[in-house]
Amino acid sequence: MSITSEQSTGPGSTRATTTALANTSGHGSPAADKIFSGISLVAGVLILVVLAAVAIFLVAMASDTFAADPTELTGGKGFASYIWPLVVGTLIAATIALLLATPVGIGVALFISHYAPAKFAKPVGYVIDLLAAIPSVIFGAWGASVLAPHVVPFYNWLGKYFGFLPIFEGPASQTGKTILTAGIVLAIMILPIITAMCREIFLQTPKLQEEAALGLGATRWEMIRMTVFPFARAGIISSVMLALGRALGETMAVTLVLAGGPFNPSLIQSGNQTVASEIALNFPEAYGIRMSELIAAGLVLFVITLLVNVLARFIVSRYNTGVE
Amino acid sequence: MSKRIDVENLNVYYGDFLAVENINMAIEPRSVTAFIGPSGCGKSTFLRTLNRMHEVLPGARVEGKVLLDGEDLYGKGVDPVAVRTHVGMVFQRPNPFPTMSIRENVLAGVKLNNKKISRTDADDLVEKSLRGANLWNEVKDRLDKPGAGLSGGQQQRLCIARTIAVKPEVILMDEPCSALDPISTLAVEDLINELKEEFTVVIVTHNMQQAARVSDKTAFFNIAGTGKPGKLIEYAPTQEIFNNPSEKATEDYVSGRFG
Fold first, then answer.
1. How far is Cα B242 from Cα B239, in angstroms, rounded to an integer?
2. Fewest CB within a 10 Å sphere: which of A144, A173, A233, B94?
3. Which residues contact A289 (CB under 8 A, 6 or more apart)?
4. Which SMART domains match (chain B) (predicted)?
5. Which of B81, B107, B160 to mutate to test the interface with A (most CBs of A within 10 A)?
6. Domain ranges in chain A?
7. Cis peptide before A171, with omega less than 30 degrees from 0?
8. Which residues of A touch B125 (CB under 8 A)?
9. Does residue A20 register a pLDDT over 60?
10. Per-residue pLDDT tens digits for B16-41
11. Residue B123 Ramachandran class (φ > 0 left, ψ -120 to 50 alpha, else beta)
12. Which CATH code fits A74-320?
């Protein structure tokens, strides 16, 4: 037994040495290595293929719309005039969500990472993470049936005192199913994304830098401004961009909450519609050119999301250089 | 400005764990005092109680008194933030703020307390502080470059400049040379000798030659074993600690028989 095994290790080890040498000069590799690199290559290529397939599908299906006679399309004035209110509505809802969720999300993350006592910080963190686990249809149902009726008095108040601003022009919707309500629901939905990412990054701020600031006589807030925010800047931006991606694409919650309609500059009246919600509402009954039109709308959303991601990467890479 | 420090019956805790027990010590103004002792003996912990940095860690607390010219740092109504502007600190590893330029680093602490410092005053202060830290000639042409771009020794001197810019009365140094090469160490040691003209300097060091070179008085700390509190064994003029210590443990330590 022992003799045979010794004999077999002899050539085995020689082979190992030769392969190691061969490896450095770039010839061949052991079978396991080859299989693994093959698997990872396939996985990598597959992702690109899927992405390309989606893009090709969107473009191919949408091409009918771009080629079609403007009068055949919804509204009868061509694709551009059909899509722009939807894009604007999508951007309005996402912007409201970001404006509300970013300060709250960063604040909660800071509370968990730097203010709350340890035994309190953890449960708060779990609750926030739990928010991310709630399905969007639940948020939608809650927003439509609970939140919307309750915000009506607030909208009336906004309309009364801030009605001179076009965005708060009255009379306010008496169902509360407006783009502002949709934005608030979206804000709650993206809050856990911002909070969870920011919290992780805030916690990674080097202790040595925090102590440097405290040692100079900084208060806790000054310490956070001097060390935590500069350190976390790129991370904050990417968390917000990730949240923006979610807000742009969110469908179900908006569909349930928003009583959609044509573009309306007032946020407290019904009206406006998002791209994703428009597709979801109309797709089941669509055929022919209408189907192509909705897919073209999907293509537009895809491009917007892609641009947001590219922009996020660009900003992050610019800010990253200054920070360790 | 320079102030004396008197420590009375100081116990330092991490939660329930007594880390340093019953310290009594008087530190003279315009002097350099070195803390030496084996790892884990509580010398750094004790140092951090002198500007209330110890309590930054969760569960950390202190009993007893630390008097700065007679005023108790742990008295009622004393703001730890204010304490730290009077008692500055230089850390084990150089830690300039990475997103700030050299100039901004020097002014970081000053800007906290005095937001409306004029441009010329700021320029004067930057030059004075960097000269005080023996760094001016090396960086005067690149004050707007990031502080993180300097060498380790230069970064540590930048941190010292940042500390003296706040005009503290006391400067605490927690193993300031442990991450530096010998030449940078020499530069910082020279600087410490100059700093004592103006400040009370307290330095923790693992390097006994360093303690012998820079300090007027030396305090030797020791622990009886793991889990036991650190204690001040002997506190005397540096010459005496190294040549003629009165405690056996001190002699064993400085002669290299343990630790």
1. 5
2. A233
3. A64, A65, A68, A72, A73
4. AAA
5. B81
6. 2-48, 74-320
7. yes
8. none
9. no
10. 899 999 999 999 999 999 999 998 88
11. alpha
12. 1.10.3720.10
pLDDT in tens, A23-44: 554 555 688 888 999 999 999 9
For residue range B113-167, what is the model confidence (pLDDT) as tens digits?
A: 777 788 898 999 999 999 888 899 999 999 999 988 899 889 999 999 999 999 8
* Burial of B168 from C-beta contacts in 10 A (0-12 / 13-18 / 19+): buried
Q: Is A217 on the interface with B (CB under 8 A)?
A: yes
What is the bridge-based pairing of β-strands B5-14 and B170-174? unpaired
- Reported ipTM: the value is 0.87
Map chain B to HEC letters: CCCCEEEEEEEEEECCEEEEEEEEEEECCCCEEEEECCCCCCHHHHHHHCCCCHHHCCCEEEEEEEEECCEECCCCCCCHHHHHHHEEEECCCCCCCCCCEHHHHHHHHHHHHCCCCCHHHHHHHHHHHHHHCCCHHHHCCCCCCEHHHCCHHHHHHHHHHHHHHCCCCEEEEECCCCCCCHHHHHHHHHHHHHHCCCCEEEEECCCHHHHHHHCCEEEEEEECCCCCCEEEEEEEEHHHHHHCCCCHHHHHHHCCCCC
Strands B230-237 and B71-72: unpaired
Residue type, A55: A
pLDDT at A12: 42
Tokens of A108: 């909660």
Q: Mention every residue, 6+ apart, whose C-beta is less than 8 A from residue B86.
A: B3, B51, B68, B168, B169, B170
Which residues in chain B touch residue A211, judged by CB atoms under 8 angstroms apart?
A: 53, 56, 89, 91, 95
Say what the pTM is. Answer: 0.80
When computed from its CA atoms, the radius of gyration of chain A, rounded to whole angstroms, is 27
Who's near A279: CB < 8 A, 6+ residues apart? A251, A294, A297, A298
Give domain B5-254's CATH superfamily. P-loop containing nucleotide triphosphate hydrolases (3.40.50.300)
